[in-house]
Give the backbone structure.
Amino acid sequence: MYESLVEEAKKARNMAYCPYSHFAVGAALLAKDGRIFTGCNIENASYGATICAERVALGKAISEGARAFVAIAIVSSAEENTPPCGICRQVLVEWMPEGDVVLWSKKAGIQVEPMAALLPGAFLRASMKEQTKEG
Ligand code: THU
């Protein structure tokens, strides 16, 4: 079902800039309007300034006007599937709370996880509305 999205993520992985970790990651984000936005990790000599592939793809998508998403595929250079980091989970849940996270590796194949299962009880825009009501 998500095979072609995984192929796009694999292509994006070729662009990874990862001279520090040598851990290449590619992501492909499918928008509800059918467009696909890709990203790779972009590392920095100041390690904390590194941007993950998922957030690069999402930033490209948002800046091109996409606002709703179906799924994101993530492919790394590891043998096993690579789950998104905590920061990426928080950023992704804002934009695709009902979307799918699709992981792929040669060893494990395709694994589809609902976004909601990867960050249960997420802090969302609605969480702040609740705060305002009570306080
Ligand atoms: N990385 C990603 O791009 N996405 C993930 O889901 C996991 C981690 C990157 C950040 C860094 O460049 C390298 O992988 C090692 O953490």
